Structure formats: structure tokens, C-alpha cells
Automatic annotation (TrEMBL):
InterPro entries associated with the record: PELPK1_2
UniProt keyword Calcium, yes or no: no
Swiss-Prot/TrEMBL keywords: Signal
Provenance organism: Juglans regia
UniProt-recorded name of the protein: Protein PELPK1-like
């Protein structure tokens, strides 16, 4: 009989869940009322009148004298360097390998093919003893 009672932590969890469900339903109901209400009309403000701006004279920029740059100094050209010729080194000849006799090629065994008409093997069913 003592096992039929719920522990106190289960009761508190159930109570917390019920409270959360009730608070969610009240928030949703409040949001529904906000959607259903019409928006208030906003009065239009009169447009302010601006005074016309006076015509301002365009400023004249002074002309600057054009400066001439002195010519760039000429850079002397360097002669092309000549590389010395290097003699080609002679490599010693490699010794020749002795001739090996030709080995016979191994034969690969053939894989037998299955016949196309294979008889079906009867299977045992679970109903037969």
C-alpha cells in the first residue's frame, strides 16, 4: 500500500507542469485579444513650410600654375654578363647485365561456370513434423 502513493517530487513536477500550461493559455488569450482589436487612427501632422534658400554666388577657384618636372636622369645600361662554358663531364659506362633465360608463364586455372538450369532444392516448412 505504501507503494501506491506518488513521491513528493512527482507531485511537485505535476504541479509545476500544470502552472506552466495555465500561464501559456493566458498569454495566448491576451495575444488573441490584441490581434482582434482595431488599430487607433493616427492624426496627420501638417507639413511645415520651409523658407526658400537664397541664391548663393558660386565661388571661383584660383588657377594654379602648372609645374614642370625636371627630366629624369638616364640610367646607364649594363652589358650582358657572359657565362663561362663548362665542359660536359663524361660518365663511366654502366656494366651490362647478364642475359637471363626466359621463364615459362604460369597457367591460371579456369573457374568453372554454373549451369543455367539449376534444379530447386525443396525446403522444409515449419508446419510439417
Amino acid at each position: 500500500m505504501a507503494q501506491d502513493r506518488l513521491p513528493s517530487s512527482s507531485i511537485s513536477q505535476l504541479l509545476l507542469t500544470a502552472m506552466l500550461f495555465l500561464s501559456c493559455s493566458t498569454v495566448l488569450a491576451g495575444a488573441r485579444h490584441l490581434v482582434e482589436e482595431p488599430l487607433p487612427k493616427i492624426p496627420e501632422l501638417p507639413k511645415p513650410e520651409l523658407h526658400p534658400l537664397p541664391d548663393l554666388p558660386k565661388p571661383e577657384l584660383p588657377t594654379l600654375p602648372k609645374t614642370e618636372l625636371p627630366p629624369l636622369p638616364e640610367i646607364p645600361t649594363l652589358p650582358k654578363p657572359e657565362l663561362p662554358t663548362v665542359p660536359k663531364p663524361e660518365m663511366p659506362k654502366l656494366p651490362t647485365l647478364p642475359h637471363l633465360p626466359d621463364l615459362p608463364k604460369p597457367t591460371v586455372p579456369t573457374i568453372p561456370t554454373l549451369p543455367k538450369d539449376i534444379p530447386m532444392i525443396p525446403t522444409h516448412s515449419s508446419n510439417n513434423p
